[in-house]
Structures are given as C-alpha cells and as structure tokens.
Design a protein that fits this description.
This protein has five helices and 96 strands. The protein is mainly β. Strands 45, 46, 47, 49, 50 and 51 form a six-stranded antiparallel β-sheet that branches. A five-stranded mixed β-sheet has the order 2-9-8-4-5, with no helix packed on it. The relative contact order is 0.03. Residues 10-101, 133-213, 750-842, 1133-1226 form the Ig-like domain. It comes from Oryzias sinensis. This is Myomesin 1b.
Length: 1238
Amino acid sequence: MNEDSLMHPPEFVIKPRSHTVWEKQCVRLHCTVSGWPDPRVIWYKNNVAIDPITSPGKYKLESRYSVHSLEINKCDFDDTAQYRVSAMNSQGEQSAFASIIFLLFCLDGPISEYGITFQTHIVDKFGVSFGREGETMSLGCTVIIYPALHRYQPEIQWYRDDVLLTPSKWTNVHWSGDRATLTLTHLNKEDEGLYTLRVITKSGYETYSAYVFVRDADAEVEGAPGAPLDVRCLDANKDYIIVAWKQPAVDGGNPIVGYFVDRCEVGTTHWFQCNDTPVKFARFPVTGLVEGRSYIFRVRAVNKSGMSRPSRVSEPVAAMDPADRLRMRGTSTRPLDEPAGRKPVLFYKGVVPGRPLDLQVTEATKNYVVLSWKPPGEKGLEGVMYYVEKCVAGTDSWQRVNTELPVKSPRFALFDLAEGKSYHFRVRCCNAAGVGEPSEPTEATTVDIPSAPGKVVPTRNTDTSVVVSWEASSDAKELVGYYIEASVVDSDVWEPCNNKPVKATRFICHGLVTGEQYVFRVRAVNAAGLSQFSPVSEPVEVKAAIASPAPPYGISVLECVRDSMVLAWKQPTFIGGADITGYFVDYREVIDGVPGKWHEANIKAVSERAYRVSDLQENKKYQFQVRAANMAGVGIPSVPSETFLCEEWTIAVPGPPHDLQITEVRGDSLVLLWKPPVYQGRDPINGFYIDIKEADAPEEAWRGVNTKAVEKQFIKIKNLKEGETYVFRVRAQNKAGVGKASDGNISNVPLFYVFLGTKEIVVEVDDEGVISLNFECCDTTPDSKFVWSKNYEEITESSRLTIETKANKSKTVFNTPGEEDIGIYSCLVTHTDGASSSYTFSTEGCSMYSLSILSIVIPLKSELAVELLEKGRVRFWLQAEQMSANGKIDYVFNDNKYKMNFDKNSGVIEMVMESLTPGDEGTYTFQLKDGKATNQSSLVLIGDVFKQLQKESEFQRKEYFRKQGPHFIEYLGYEVTPECCVLLKCKVSYSYRKRRAISSLGISKKDSGVYEVVLKDDRGQDTSTLSLVDQAKSSTPLKITSTDEGIRLYTFVSCYNDLLQVTWQHKDSAIAFSDRIKSGVVGEQLWLQINDPTEKDTGKYAIEFNDGKGGLQRTVELSGQAFDDAFNTYFFPDRARVAGGLPDVVTIQEGKALNLTCNISGNPVPEVTWLKNDREITSDEHCILKFESGKFASFTITGVNTSDSGKYSILVKNKYGTESGDFTVSVFIPEEAAGKNK
C-alpha cells in the first residue's frame, strides 16, 4: 500500500471546551487529535506558547494515545484567557480554541467602581525567608494602586498555605496606606509555609507569594530533639480530651523514644504532666479533667540525650459533653437528614428505639479507639441515650463498657484496651421504655507507621534551590505529610529542608549553596510515627534550571536598500540559565494591512543581534519576528515588529547606532558601549553624541552628555545620582550632520544601581618584574566566564598577553610590556549581575603608577624625611605612590644595609632608631624595587644638622625616662604673697607637694643663693634648683608663640625696673628695630615681636640682661620644627587647638567618678580622638566621651578602677593642622595607701 495514501492533515476528533472556574481550583483542557504522521501539539495562552519549565508547578502537559491535555493548577485572575491548541504535521495545521473565565469568591459587583478601573502593582517584595523559633519576623510589600484616590482602601489579606490569617497573639497585620506588613511575633514551626499577600480592589486582585522556613531553636540539652508542633484537640468530652500533634523533623541524632503531654487550666499558670511514661503515638487521651473547665496543652519530645523544648500551646478547649456544647452554642440538634421545618415525630410511651446506624471506628491506636454513629432512623429522639459494648475477636462474650450511665452524644472513646488484641464493638439505644437492639458490630483498626516513600527525583530550580519530587507512600493511613532532608555529597551530614510536614509529593528546597552537589531523601509521617527513609536520590548540582530563552524585543531597521533590510533587536530579558547560542529571523509580507505567512530568513542561527534579510521586493511592506536559542532549545518568537517599507535609504546623515550596553556601574558613574550604524550616510562617521534622561521623565527632558563628539564607541558617564533610573540613546555624526538616535531610547540595563561589593582590577609586579592585571569576582556561577577587553573590544590575539583564570580570579599578564600596551583594559564576568571593572594604561589622565610601570620607575608621594618620636627615638620614613605586595625595600647607611618596615596598604616605608650616636652621622638611603621598577631617596645628616638632631633626641630620651619616676611638672619657683612673704613652690607628679616660706616681711641679702629640691623614691629621683641671686640672673627660658600679627619671643624676669638693660640679638648681631620687628615690656614679661615672618627670620635669637653688677643671656633657636609650628599657627589661625582645661595629673580614689572638660577651637570644627597609652578608645558605658557644640570635649569615667590608670591624650585635627593635649590618671586604693603610710 502506498504510504502517501495514509497521510492526512490533523483533525480534532474532540475539541477542548471552555470552563468557568473558582479561585484556587484546578482545571484541565483536553482534546483528541487524529492525523498521519502523528501531529505535534502545542498549547498557547493568548497566542503565547505555554512552557511548563518557566512556571514550575503551574502547568502540566500530557499526550497519550492521541489524547492531549493541559492542566492548570490553582487558577487565579491571570489565568482568564483564550487558550489555543495547535496540531501540526507535514500535511498541514489545525487549531481549536477554548476559554477560561475566573471567578473570585469574595468579589461581587462590577469590576470597576464609579467608572474607574484600578491597576495594582506589588513592589519591594519580601523573598524566601529563614527564621528560628522564638524570633520575630516581618514580611512586607509595597503596594502601588493607580489611580491613587484619597482615602481609598483596598482589602489586604494574608494567607499561609492558602489559609486566611486573622490577627492573633501570633500574627499582627498592618496597612500603612502604601505598605502591607505581616509580623510573626514569636516564630514556631507552625508558622512555616507559603505566605501569600493578596491585594483586592473592585477591579480584581494581585497576589505575591514566598516561602518562610522556621528552624528549631537551640536545644536546652545538647543532642535533645526538636519541639513537636501543631498541637490540637481532636475530640473533647466531659471526662477526656484527645490531644494530637506532629512529630519534629529533628531528632537530635538519637531516635525519639516518646512524648510527654502537659496540661494547664485556663486562668492559671501551673502546668501538670499528664503521662508518667513517654507515649510513642502522636495522640494521647488526657483524662482526670474537671467537667466544664477549659484547658490548654503542650507536648515535649524525649530521646536518650534529654527533653526538647515545649511545643507551642494549643487553643483552649472545654471538658464538656458534645451535646451540652451544642446547646450552649445555640446549635440545633436536629438530625442532618431531617428537612427544615418538618414537624418532629414523637415516641409514644412504651416504644423502644431502634438500632443505631453507621457505627464507625473514627480513630484507633494500640491502646484506645473512638467510635461514632448516627441515631436511629426514627424521628424525635431527644430523650435517647446509648450503651457501648465490646467483644474480644474470636469470642461471643459481649461486655457493656459504660455500665453506670449511658452516654448522650453519638460519640464515645474507649481506653485501656489490651495491646495486641482485636475487638468488635456495637452500640444500643435506650430510653425510658427500655434498651433497643444492638447495631451491626465493627472491628477496631489501628494506624500503623507508613511505608517509606518511593523514588526521589531532584531537578534544578534556581541558584539556591532545588525542586524535589517523590513517589507517595503506599497504603498510608491518616498521613500527616513528608519530611525532606538534604546532604552535600560525601559529607554524610543530613539537614532538614522543612520543619513542618508537607502533604504534596513535590517541594522546593531553599537555602542551598550554589555550585554544591546535593542528594535528598524523604520520609512520611502520621500519628503512629515516622517511616523509614526513601532511597537516596541521584546527586544534583545547585544551579539555575535551563529553559529556552524568552523572546527578543525592540526590533528596528538599521539600513534599507532595494532588496534587503538590516534588522537589530535586543537580547531577551530571560536567557533561560544558559548562554544564547544564536537567533532565528522570520519575515512576512503585509498587503493592505493583512499579513501573510511567515518565512524563514536564516536556516543557520546568527550569533550577532543584527542580521541582513535579503531577497525582499522593493516598495513592499514587511513584518519581522525573532526567536532566541540556547542549549535547551529555540524559544518562542517575539511580538511581530512594526510594518517596515522596503525602499532604499538616500539620506545624507548616518543611521542609528545599535546594541547599547552598560558596564562598570558604580555609585555615581557607569560606562556605556554601543555599535556604530550599519548605514553611514554619504560620508564616513566622525563622532557620536550621547543623550541621557531619567526613565520617568518626559521626552523633552533628554539632555546631552557630551558637547563635543566622541570618536570612540564607549564613554564613561560620571556625576550620576545613586539610585536613579536612567535611559540613554546615541546619535552618530558625519559631515552632513547628526543622524537618527538609537532605537528604543534605552540601554539593555535600564535600572541604574550600584553593584555592592564590586572589586576593582589590581595591578601587581612580581619578583621577576612581570606585570599583571588581576580581577576577582565573588558572585561567579559555574557558568561564569571572565572576558578581557582592550579599549572595550574583546582580546582575541594573545601574543602580547597571557590570560589565566582560576576559580573566581582571573589574571592578564603582559608578556613584553611597551608603548603599544597603552589603553583601557576591562574585565566582564558573564552570568552575574554585571560584575566588571577596568584599568587605564594611558599617557593622559592615568595614575602615576600606570606610567611608572611602563617607565620602570616607582613614584614617591614624599621623599625621605626624619622626625623624633617618644623616648627620643628617630624615625626615617618616606611614602611610595603605589607598590605591589611583592615590592622590596633596602635601607643603606654608609654602604651597610638594614631591615625596614613596609605598610603595603599606605605605601609608607619607615625605619626607627632607638637613639643617635656619633657613629650614626652620615648619608641615609632607602632603595625601592618592585619587579623591574626601582627608585631611591637619600637624606644627608652631617655636621650641625646631625648634632642638633642628636641633641634633641638625647633630650627627649632623658625627659621620657625622667618622667617614668617621680618628677617635677613645674620646676622650683617663687611667689611673693600679699604679706610680702616669698613662697618657694614647685609642682611634681603624683601626690608630692613641696612649699617653703622664706620670710614673712621680705627677703634680705643673706637669703641670696641657689635653692635645690630633690624628689626621689624607689623608682628614681629628680632635681630642681632655683637661683635667688641678682635680679638679672633670675628669668625664665626664652619661649616662642604665635600672635595674630606674626611670631613673638618672650621671657619673664623676677622683677623689672628701669635700671635693667635689655639687648635683643639675632644670629649674634644686635637687632635693628623697625615697624616689622619690635620689642617691649608688659609687667615682668619682655618680648620681641616679628610681624609677617619669612624664612629670613629663622636662626638663633638671644636676650641679654645687665643690671650693672652682672649679666645673663637667654637664647632660643627659631628654626626647623619650632619655626614651622609657629609659622603655621600664625598662617592658619583656624587650625585645630586644645585651648585648655585639662590638668597634667589626676589622682583619684577607686570607685569615684572622674569628669574632665576641655575647650576645643578650630574652623572647620575639628575631629576629636581620645587615646589611652597611645591607643584609640571609644565611648561606652564605663568611659563616656562627648563633643558638644563644636567647642567642649568631655571625658567621664563613671566609676574608676586601677585599670583606668595611665596616660591619656586628646587629639584634635582639621584641615589646617593637628594638636594634642595629655594628662595622667592615677587611681589609688584607700586601704593600700593607709598601709603604706604606716
């Protein structure tokens, strides 16, 4: 038989029919199709092909024996649409249509109110969340409703696992007018589940859902199990309440041996344990209750390690006969099958009731059963009660269970049954006339542990989640749900994926580590216990699932000639988790507005987002569509483009640029890339203009980024506002003018945002002098690739560069660096959120370090310098512009090398000497080497320069050691009291105070001489002398200070009169006074004022006193640091200063409070830092630091102790300078001080 004679096009034997469905219902469309060869069937929703992979769990497609079906799970408002099923084979194509109309339970009335249709958008959504028992969690979304009407309030509903939540002590719901928030006040495992926010308006509703996971709280005893959950009361009677719960997923590493049930009477706080031994079954009848009282319950699990935390308490329930409970609620006791309004039939006196009906065992364990039945079929049984009888299976000996009183309600629980025996049960009715015939007997059945679930199949979902499905447990009775566990391959450590059982056989496990290999197992749970684990699944790698890409968009024409057109389009917003391998273009002719059939423009996929469609006809109109492809397949086609006329372009200006891209997004800048126009116009392109506007701004808001055309096809756009959304367009220019802007007016990354944690490219030079660019990305995926470019063109020729990539780091090595390597080097990491960076090797606008690498010279921020530190130590230092981690430094002194300290972060290189000796005089040199780059800096310390430095170092060293023991803070001096007594005084460290009165009337010649005070203890000693000789020989050292006019030198004499001759000298020559240099006397102060000081004013100054009997000279060196400090203070009057208020020493008793305040000045307001023993301290409860009004800095210790003793400093700093103030705190204990005195 000829095979062709059997072929025929598809034909719908049974077409799908339309459905009207309620919210959350499932619906199935099915059809039967014939045809040869077997047709290929595709389902469409509003002409868009349905892909089950892109919406996991939403759609299910089946094809079996020519019957094809589409199942839609949990219908909502978005499922209202026209559905089309298309059958296609080589003989033709046929389609059938069906519609689904969605109805909402809670909505009534028209879909618009007052002629307004509301549009609802849910933004700023909460994601998959993880919490722990006992914590508080808030879930929130921002809701935008358009149009925004004043005082219009939508209905906000929250659901957990499709159950509406109401406010309670566990949940709080809040609506602020634009944000819906659900607060879970005290998390328990009962709170785990899928949370859904539903915003309802008269025009419909919008929903958003995400899963919340609740982990167990830390066990009070190590190894104890997790707490049980979902404690509830299954049956309540006057003398018993049956409590049920769910077993926890975590057993602590040891099997759970049972559970303890606790009860608490409502209104009290006393908990009583209901069972003496643990019960293994997850149900327990609690007896010994007081009728009419209400109780709450909780459950604890126990294993050999200890007891779990208690579960969340149950809802309160009263111990009461069910019939009494119904009467209290006002519920009718009319039988369910009696029609309303029917007159009841009353029993006549002496009539015995019939048999009870439908006797069932509603609940059974190894120790108790619960029976339920229906009253007899006769009417009017308000006075009927019941007797329950039992019989051991295999015998005919019936025993009445409730021998004392019959029960009123058709429900009864039997306890204390013999474990291992099987029983029959029956029920009799009774009334005043007697006891009726028994019901049909039944056997008690027990609930056994379910069998293990079947095969477990994990599938990829996202970068942090996996979809796990499994075969249900067979013949499981009263199944509560399933627990899923995950383990990293080869770790043998299992972690629960859910802490609340799920009833479905499919679950999404979240919180997994991207790139890791996991295996899964499942076990079932019911009241009897947990099943064995299922077989372990095959390993699966955690990575985004691969699906066919979404359709491209933004089709535009770049060039048009008589018989061809060049098209461009934008990459799909969703690429399916795999790189796009190419695109397919279709076209169709449009005649008088009616489109024709689609034709393939290319058989082989094109990799670029631009393609020339040939073999078109001039002056004909065409539409185009594009499909993207990846390793998962070819995606659905794009929306048909606009209708384009095929006619040759003759305009003089260029066509539009295309393929705009954004990279290197930072806090206030980004880099924009584009491709040049295909159509250049009459002349070559000589530049580009870039326009920018905010995304929500009108068209007239476009503004130019550059005023001068840029020749390159990239630009770095700066001074952007962080968090703003921008769109861009590019226009090309030639001699004829500026052409059309790029189509779409937007880049492929329309949202401008900052990639947090983005690292920059780092330049390194190794010991061999090899230069490399290094880039690290922390957000890589297994599919990520590092793409290096030079001047934003991918590097393909590798003769000058070697690229090495390992894990999340990539390195580009310059083989032979030279002038031709100058340019912008950038690195882009694929399959990330756009992680990228660049580094510029350029002769213009680049860093000093970039040039130094090419010129093999290490630049310096500062040359070699010297300064004195504490203890008179001498520090030699310099700072390099930048050096790699492999840089080396040598210190050379008189041709000998020494070790150095190198801070690679700041580039500071230093060498510290404890003191200077005569042998240290000479030339100091620092030699730097970073690969092949080198540099050096030298400092000459010879002659007077070295001697002065050595002298100052030695003085500072002596001062330091002097101050380690008892020492003078103020040396011995004198004071004339109002009574004309001369008081000798000095100020010393710690608690020493020495004063001496010389005379009560005056001082005579016999008191002339030198007075000395010696201060010593076991730590050392210090000496201070005072010369009371002729007045000329009594003066203070010459000091330097700054004034508003310049620099002032001054000294104080003990007594000044006109007989005292004063001479000022500069560099051993008498000073010629003028308007700029003046001298004078104020009280006992003699001063020399130098206005507008310059470098010429540096040098040695001296003041000589002569009273005719003898002379005295005081000198000071106004040079070096002394001159710089005075000059800077004069030149920068606004520099930071510690104006005063701090003592030198504070001696305080332990336990007392210490409070010190000092004045701070400076403009701008200085930064204040406090130090203890040269280490920074911060404010806390013990030491409170404040800086108020920009003027007052306070230091408070609330209760001092011996550890607070030490040297304290305040450091103030602004842009004009830095100053510090020091004080010492000494804490003493009264008892120890008293002991020493004894």
